[in-house]
User: What shape does this take?
Amino acid sequence: MTPDTQKDEFLRVRKIESGIVIDHIPQGNSLRVARILGLDESNQATVSLLMNVPSSSTGLKDIIKIEGRELSERELERIALVAPSATLNVIRGYVVAQKFKAKLPEVVEDVVPCPNPTCISNKEGRPRLHIREHSPLKLQCDYCEKVYSEDEFSF
Ligand SMILES: [Zn+2]
Assistant: This one.
């Protein structure tokens, strides 16, 4: 794939003036990312969701474009949980002002509930999980000490 076709792919939906483009989301995970960001609810932002976009490196990928909104640290951590390969582009004045990779800290605190319904962290305290393995992602709960894979978490 030439740089020109990659550029076309990035611009497949009209340019946005300001907002976020979340690129390189694993194929099929864009709906989860949208749910994490509350984009399916009472949200005024214009959202473009592109699924199964050809990618030079991973076959097919998903992309989300969100107009007029930036992301909090907590939202970035939640995105990193379901889309560790995602690249985030901050758009200001129609150009990419900032570009960075989603990054999950070694300790994931108060970001996502423990999947174990009887875990004490779901009743009191704040959920705390440690990364045990990066690829595929596995997280261990500090309270019930069980190890979970990414698809066991619900948002
Ligand atoms: Zn737990």
Summary: DSSP finds three helices and nine strands in the chain. The CA atoms of residues 26 and 91 lie 21 Å apart. Helices lie at 3-10, 30-36, 73-82. The first strand starts at residue 18 and ends at 26.
